């Protein structure tokens, strides 16, 4: 996530320089052919070009809208994970009780059980985050939105086992990462521990089901993330938005020529800056949507999952009355991951 | 689902070659009549044509939007089925308990009960998938979106009984497929087994109702799929989008003639490429919406149900501690089903 | 619901012939006055007319969008009724149990109770369907969307008591139809029977509340239908969409005259076909929205409630292990009701 | 709510006569200055005016969309109140039972308890309705949408105590209306009675919580109404829609002059009818949104709360087996309140 | 929140005077160069400029829509907090009971417990409000939407501890504000007190879980506020809306020159007022969206959280039968905070 109100030129530059150079050369070439080589036939009327422009603006607008919805839904899901994590913590802390239990447990034994459930939860959100960012959606595709992030050392993805070592003992991690979906399996383990607690009388049937319902909630949010990750914006829509935009940019200068030539002779050269401005606007619209559609890609427009996970960790460990809380994650070069 | 960022020409070609050929011939004919036969009366002003263009772009945009919503909702439903399946599994594994039961069951007997409930669930999602893809919405309608898929051997639909044989004994399958809606009946059987478990004291009333609520959730998701399948995008909206687009394409070249003739004499022939580009854009917009509206059709834009079902199978069998897990489904020719 | 991909001319004709005739005569008259009577003052510039056109296209687009949302919501509600009906059936079949009851009931007595609850439910959805279709929203309004349906004998609405006789004894029906809202009262009776079952120990408190929650769900869906029925698309929006469209159609030919006259003398007569095409597109857009806004009107764009009710009946009676199941409802003249 | 398909002229007139008169005079004045005073400089090109027109149409469209959403949400809330009221009634009738109670109550005592809970609920929806309509959102603002309603005697708002006297004893009303929010307090009283019933063993814990959940639902719906009432469509959006529309109307005739003058000399006078039509369409669009944004204002576009409350009363008293049911509320002058 | 129907000039002025001055000078300069310096080459055709205008209007419209959605969602969340607070109050008042308790508590002891839970809740919503308004989203960014509010003494933000002192004892506040998120911790304390009540038999398991569910609801709403606060409208979308608007404004006067020059010589000076009107409309559209996107910023478009908190306080203390209720918050200079 980019965090300042204005996007500085240094961020903009890698996204646009290639296209701008292309627009300048393309329109320069056409003006040269028209004016110097006297290829007057290059000029075509502007009105049909404007018709394409309107249709393309519609279509790109639709794509932008949908990309934004995907991004916003992704952020909403991680908001829900935050809420549910806090709820999980107060439930774990206040539902487990020796009231109806035949066993007698010391306070520190009880506290250890609670800590286990909460730390395994922190491991869960960590695993989910790493899994989501690990595999790119498009294997061979690479763009400036990724490069900007990859250039920053601190954003290098750690391996899952290293990230988990803060919350789980090593032997558990080793068996865990052999499962096809570690995050899913961590929830499975939470459920197994809840069953134990119930069988030992530390949870009433009623409280047991209520806690299990929280696991269902986590599965729902996890599944929602995986759905966004594994079902990119449908290609039939996204690809043609790209094609239409470039078709429009391709025919645009011929239309501009005519209009500019109407005003005066050397005015045709104004086609160059004007074409570049219009083409840049349409191309930028396209790119804005394109780089926002996948919010879990280790790219500049990612949902800041690392920061969210840290905030959850701070809140939950504060509830456990721990005092050596970690610091909040800060933006680096105005990028928060 | 198409899985690469760019749609290659080999996929595009079957969708567009007929239309492009038509556009070329139609505009060529008109130019010929105008320029060679001197039928100057063919030229009409472009402005009213542009008015139609704007209205049509609106209307097609609305159709595309709605088709996308249908597709996205379909994917969301299958995401929910994934989530609920995982939840079903942890509940089945951890709710059924001999704690309050008069009966004594061995661990392996208990495990068998759990496996029954989970395997019947895998049979359920398989049955749902096959049912959704079996019957086409439009009996006599056939388009390239289907042909592309049908050409690939691996995507041939198996019969329901063959698909189910991996999860259910043969005799059960035989009686099952005689019911009007096998998927619905499988849930009915789950419910019956839950009742047995409750009556034998293996489920408390409270856990019983909570598991039954999961069956309600599956009925909700199944019904949502069937609703999308049996209620296509309303014809009054979809059909006129098609009619308006072609009316616009029909009148477009006459308007272009006038504009092109303004620039110079032989420029009228530029009507051919220009008309083809504009017509192709509008026609493609129409087709994109049209091929996306039905997401359970065994066509290229299908929700990848086969892959999703396999992922659920892997997750659930992993939870059952099975180790010979099947592989994930891979895309063939960049198509994931 | 219309069920084929293409709308045939026989369906289109009653909707459009009057308007097309009007468009032809109106534009013919204007051309005649301009060209033969030499009323040259009739020609006005096209550009302001195009401005109206854009604004109207926006407004009509908004109306179409909203009408579609109403239709889709209506279909979604009936989808939910289907899902809830199936859930109701498995709950009725598996919740009612003699486990905790002092009474001893034979299996067939139990089965009769279950059948009562399920058959009364089938009566409920039938009553809801008939109630929704009985009274038109606009008393004196009549359009081709209704005529097309009314011409087909099989779509004639039966009286409520006749329809209910398949599911309820006659004496119950008689007292039922005296209530102000029979469907609401049927749910009231379901609730009363559930209380009896609870008081006789055939339902635990917990299962009782869960079943009652299903009745709440049915009231929610019923209320949603009644809301759509009794609150048509607000007149302030719908009516002006109609007025603006016709104002646009009214001024359109004068603007076209000017444009056509620019090209050549007798070209003004091209105003007739061109005006007719543009006017037809705008008028058709308006009509599409207008005929779709009320989905429970016994008209061609109705949600196919009869078919949905039949499907529910088949599923539920199959669950009761009945074997003489009725057939699915088929479309007649491509219309499914 | 206006209830006929076509809005008659008598309703339209008060909304539009002032504006139409203004449009006519304004454009007449401009034409007079241009044609008679020869102020030719008044004519400016139309194209930039059209650009404003498109932008304004977008903006007004957005406002209309949002206003409609507010209106539709308001109607949806009152639909939910209807549904929840019916559910409240069947729960009150069938949950309260002497089964587990030490007390013995006669049937008529039980019935009185049920009647109390249902009549207090009818008082609640009445109080909510009156509260919503009592205070206008804009103290000093008054428009035809209100005048049309205020002219009709039957729509005069009664005071809250008079309306409540049909459902509550006088002494209760007196203490009730002293509270800051009577509707909120009525729910408080329902909750207190539920506690009494539970403490007297007439409600199991489980049924108690389920009934209390219905009170939560009513608070949710009430709060949703109050939110719409107290948070009008944000001024920054609504006000500029009004300003932009009138700016467009202000500059429009100068642009039309040029276009009309192109055709012929006296054609400039056609500016008057044309300007009036375009200005009327844009102004009407603006007004349609503006009069629909507040659905609880005692104005012509109100959600028909009086009719809905009456329908709930009929349904609930029918469930209580009462026979002297009131009549449904009828529209007066095609307005249903 | 601004509270009158029309926005007065005094509010508008600080937002627009700089831009209007800039527009006037810029266009004056261009006209001067064209007309006096005879730089005729400055005039370029208007049509391509109009194409940019349409695309920009689309894009800004999208931004406005999204900003409005954020604002409306924020208001909706605080509506839900109101509803849930009322529900919390009736539950606290009527769920806690000595019915099943071994302890005997006097009525005033019980009442004190209830008051504690309700006052701590009032502290919670206060803490949430102060936290949301404390830290700005953009550290160094400042605009008139904030200045208008900051000029009013009564809107100065108090420190959290001072605000909380009305509801909590001082020692509790001191320990509270040391936690990383005081609002989150207050809910933690509510949960701990609920556990105590359950362990002392003052809450049945069932009522305990139901009250805990309300805490989950509060965490959900709190998290939703924090999500809107910490995830501003994505920069890639918002920033380019700003850039495109100003690019359009930048090229607009050159296009207007040509059109105005067509009409007559000195008409070029009409570029100044016309340009200013069009530029002002587009710029205002942009600003409206920009100042509405962050609804918790202590700015003029804030959700009126102070007023909502006060209303909740009045309702809840009225339910506690307190009589010295505070007054509702009034708007100052038509601004309600």
From TrEMBL, chains A, B, C, D, E:
UniProt entry tagged with the keyword Cell cycle: no
Annotated compartments: Cell membrane
Record-annotated membrane-spanning stretches: 12-35, 41-62, 237-257, 263-282
Entry keyword Transmembrane helix: yes
Key words of the record: Cell membrane, Ion transport, Membrane, Transmembrane, Transmembrane helix, Transport
Domain of life: Bacteria
Main location: membrane
Membrane topology: Multi-pass membrane protein
InterPro entries from the UniProt entry: YneE/VCCN1/2-like
Pfam families assigned to the protein according to its UniProt record, in alphabetical order: Bestrophin_2
Family assignment from sequence similarity: Belongs to the anion channel-forming bestrophin (TC 1.A.46) family.
Name listed for the protein in its UniProt record: Bestrophin family protein
């Amino acid at each position: 996530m980019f965090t300042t109100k204005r996007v500085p030129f240094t961020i903009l530059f890698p996204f646009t320089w290639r296209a701008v150079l292309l627009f300048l050369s393309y329109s320069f070439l056409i003006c040269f052919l028209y004016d110097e080589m006297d290829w007057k036939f290059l000029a075509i009327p502007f009105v049909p070009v404007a018709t394409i422009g309107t249709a393309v603006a519609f279509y790109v607008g639709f794509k932008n809208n949908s990309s934004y919805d995907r991004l916003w839904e992704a952020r909403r899901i991680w908001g829900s994970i935050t809420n549910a994590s806090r709820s999980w913590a107060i439930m774990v802390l206040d539902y487990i009780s020796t009231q109806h239990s035949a066993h007698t447990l010391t306070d520190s034994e009880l506290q250890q059980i609670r800590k286990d459930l909460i730390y395994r939860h922190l491991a869960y959100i960590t695993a989910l985050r790493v899994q989501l960012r690990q595999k790119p959606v498009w294997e061979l595709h690479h763009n400036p939105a990724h490069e900007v992030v990859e250039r920053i050392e601190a954003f290098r993805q750690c391996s899952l086992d290293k990230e988990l070592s803060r919350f789980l003992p090593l032997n558990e991690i080793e068996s865990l990462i052999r499962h096809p979906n570690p995050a899913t399996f961590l929830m499975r383990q939470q459920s197994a521990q809840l069953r134990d607690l119930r069988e030992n009388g530390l949870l009433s049937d009623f409280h047991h089901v209520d806690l299990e319902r929280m696991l269902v909630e986590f599965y729902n949010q996890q599944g929602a993330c995986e759905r966004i990750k594994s079902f990119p914006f449908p290609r039939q829509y996204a690809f043609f938005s790209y094609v239409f935009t470039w078709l429009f940019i391709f025919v645009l200068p011929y239309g501009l020529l005519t209009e500019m030539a109407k005003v005066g002779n050397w005015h045709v050269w104004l086609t160059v800056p004007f074409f570049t401005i219009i083409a840049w606007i349409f191309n930028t619209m396209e790119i804005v949507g394109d780089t926002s559609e996948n919010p879990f890609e280790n790219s500049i427009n990612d949902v800041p999952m690392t920061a969210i996970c840290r905030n959850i960790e701070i809140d939950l460990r504060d509830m456990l009355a721990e005092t050596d809380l970690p610091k909040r994650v800060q933006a680096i070069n105005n990028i928060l991951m």
